[in-house]
Amino acid sequence: MQKPLLNGLALTAIAATSLMLWALPSWADATPLSGMDMVELAASHERSGELEAAEALYLQACDLGEGFGCSGLTILHEQRGDLEVFEAISREGCEAGSGLSCVFLGDIAMSRGDPMALAYFDTACDLGHGGGCSLRGDKHEIYAEFDQAEARYAEACDLDNINGCLGLAYVLSSIGRYEEAASPYRQACDLGSAEGCFFVGTSFFRQEDVQQALVYLERACGMGFDKGCNLARILLSSN
């Protein structure tokens, strides 16, 4: 018999919300849902504002060992301010393989000054969560562990994490590897970072490629980055 993932504390708190199995669709008895099916259905309920139905499905997915179910359940409890339950379910989710839940645990540990935070971020990164990789890179950078910071930021950037790409570019620039920094800056820009677009634009400006510089500076400006607007105006007025 499979051991339920949720501990007594989490189950007691969740039971208090009077969640019912009626949240499942009527055809669920005939067609058993996988944990991931439950997560997708729960997300649909959540988008529609049907939070009790969403919570019931996330709970069942989490209890089946689906980490994304634990993550969804965790977020709902955080939004309600149920911090004790939030931590309990984050722990269950992290153990079930949810990188996001491990990030939540790391954030909680950081707020307490608990050095275990770094281990949680490492676990999140190893599980493929870009935010965990980026946060771990941040801590390496703070302690001037630039090789380790570069490695974690590169993993985050490969996972399309904007902060990871920016962090990688900053580290490469700080040690004089400016040409290599251009690629993560461009990726950050393509992912929607105004700051990334600005730095790509300034790179083209230093290369005296005004047309390409304007393309990226105007993208940064369009995202509300004032420095991009100001430099674009200067370039336009001087040409």
Automatic annotation (TrEMBL):
SUPFAM superfamilies: HCP-like. Keywords: Repeat, Signal. InterPro entries: HcpB-like, Sel1-like, TPR-like_helical_dom_sf. Gene3D superfamilies: Tetratricopeptide repeat domain. Residues 1-28 form the signal peptide. Belongs to the hcp beta-lactamase family. This is Beta-lactamase. It comes from Octadecabacter dasysiphoniae. The lineage of its organism: Bacteria, Pseudomonadati, Pseudomonadota, Alphaproteobacteria, Rhodobacterales.
